[in-house]
Amino acid sequence: MHNGADAELEGVCPIVHYSLYIVQSFFVPLRPVYLIVAGDPVKSIMPKQKTNSAAKKRFKLTGTGKIKRKHAFHSHILTKKTTKQKRNLAHSSTVHVSNEPRIKALLGLS
Length: 110
What we know:
Blueprint: H1 4-8, H2 14-27, E1 33-35, E2 43-45, H3 53-58, E3 60-61, E4 67-69, H4 83-90, E5 93-94, H5 100-107
Antiparallel strand pairs: 1-2, 3-4, 4-5
Protein name: Large ribosomal subunit protein bL35
GO cellular component, one term: cytosolic large ribosomal subunit
InterPro entries: Ribosomal_bL35 (IPR001706), Ribosomal_bL35-like (IPR021137), Ribosomal_bL35_CS (IPR018265), Ribosomal_bL35_sf (IPR037229)
């Protein structure tokens, strides 16, 4: 289990040794992370899936499982838009069924 990089870290703080394995695991998504815990044998855990930060700010889940979104074109340059346009853009809408699997994957719901 030890390689050349581990030999250089002998006697170094265990936090550095711990972070080495975590950094390596992010480049290979399904490789287990090996934790070095003092007094315990080496444990392996699978890495957690991260929620996309941009998606969690833009989408909300409804009670029935649909995904709510806001309309575009309602943030600036509003003087040339009619009152009816602006009123209709103010209401939220749902994501189309064909895009739902992609959005749910970004939100970590798949």
